[in-house]
């Protein structure tokens, strides 16, 4: 599952703007493999190895930006938050 939200507020004053971006992601990356050791004489399976890796990942971040002109220059305040975990 992936979700995102964006909001932008423009003000009457030229180049003044508030922006919010939020992103969330959650998935289950199940990976694994099977390895077979084959005989070169009769092509029978000598050994077999199986590895199953089950997992989960969840993460999200948010970004806040406020832009405003100041003394003929554009200043920008940013705040970024991020949280991710996996097991």
Question: Explain this structure to me?
Answer:
With 87 residues, the chain is mainly β. It has one domain (2-86). Helix content is 0%, strand content 75%. The chain contains no helices and six strands. It has strands at 2-10, 17-27, 31-38, 45-53, 57-70, 73-86. It has a four-stranded antiparallel sheet, with no helix packed on it. It has a two-stranded antiparallel ribbon with strand order 3-4. A hairpin with a 6-residue loop joins strand 1 and strand 2 (17-27).
Features:
87 residues; mainly beta; four-stranded antiparallel β-sheet; two-stranded antiparallel sheet; 0% helix
Number of helices: 0
SSE string, helix = H, strand = E? EEEEEE
Radius of gyration from CA coordinates = 26 Å
Structural class: mainly beta
Q: Strand percentage, roughly? A: over 45%
Structural domain tally: 1
Q: Low-confidence stretches at least 5 residues in length (pLDDT < 50)?
A: none
Mean pLDDT: 79
**Largest sheet features:** 4 strands, antiparallel
Count of beta strands: 6
Separation, N- and C-terminal Cα atoms: 17 Å
Based on Cα principal axes, name the global outline: rod-shaped
Biggest sheet strand order reads 1-2-5-6
Helical fraction equals under 10%
Architecture blueprint of SSEs:
Blueprint: E1 2-10, E2 17-27, E3 31-38, E4 45-53, E5 57-70, E6 73-86
Antiparallel strand pairs: 1-2, 2-5, 3-4, 5-6
């Amino acid at each position: 599952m992936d979700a995102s939200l964006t909001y932008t507020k423009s003000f009457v004053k030229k180049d003044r703007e508030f922006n919010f971006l939020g992103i969330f992601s959650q998935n289950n990356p199940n990976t694994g493999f099977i390895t077979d050791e084959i005989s070169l004489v009769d092509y029978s399976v000598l050994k077999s190895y199986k590895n199953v890796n089950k997992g989960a990942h969840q993460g999200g971040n948010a970004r806040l930006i406020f832009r405003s002109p100041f003394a003929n220059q554009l200043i920008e305040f940013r705040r970024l938050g991020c949280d991710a975990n996996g097991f």
